[in-house]
Amino acid sequence: MDIMIQIQRRAENMHFWINVNNHLVYKYYGCLYTSLSTIETNGEGLTSIISKDDLDRICKNFCLASERKTPYYCPKVVRGGTWLTCHYFKYGGCDHRDGAAYFLQYRGRDIHTECLAASGKINMDAKEFRNNLIGINDPRIRYGSKPYHPYCFGHFHKYKIDAKDIAGYEALDDANKAVLDKYIKKSDDYDIPTVNKAYYDEYCCAEECLESETPSKFPYPYTIKSNLHLQIKFQNKLYHPKCLQASGKVNIDAKDVKNYNALTQEERHSIDQIFKKTE
């Protein structure tokens, strides 16, 4: 089993790759793909549409998956309740107990801690489990109307402040300050748009979305369509490229947009037409 990676078209050498080199390149729905192992061992002349950092991350997680060490195989601690039923109660091996304080979610299933331990399906210490709970005395970041673990907030958001600039920082003890200092750091590229293919349907955050006849918000249909649109992330919000440019929030050349070089030639051309810095 191998991972297939989409590659850029290169007309000057593609004929050689497809017809001579034992079908190292495959065409699927008009796009060209090659295997991850081919890029690593025999990839001269092939250019992936994703960055080297992303390729390295894919390789790392592919190896971890073979050892069952990815988050999918790592139990997550969730708060219990009478509405949760242990997976093993349905399929045998569990004495049902209502009102369990905590459950473990393992591969999408809710399981009592004792039942998962007895199953022999995992081999790790409890401290390696993912904790989805924010305890009463745990530090949390409130952003908008939602609370976050400091790690989760730091992992999924960009910001132009350091931990010490967060309201309430000075009231924390040294241990909790250290937690925030570790995960909340000012982003160097907060004001730089990042372009990617849309892999999920999303809403464009422009006040007036140019790609939709309906408002770009719930309960209307998503306006950024997966596998159809490019999306631009700017200051933690998603836009269609033309919507971000029309908003007046940025004044930047296309080549200065992050991930520009990872796009196909056709996609770069479309971005070139949209983003042109003015003096």
From TrEMBL:
* Protein source organism: Panagrolaimus superbus
User: What is the designated name of this protein?
Assistant: Uncharacterized protein
Q: What is the lineage of its organism?
A: Eukaryota, Metazoa, Ecdysozoa, Nematoda, Chromadorea
Organism domain of life? Eukaryota
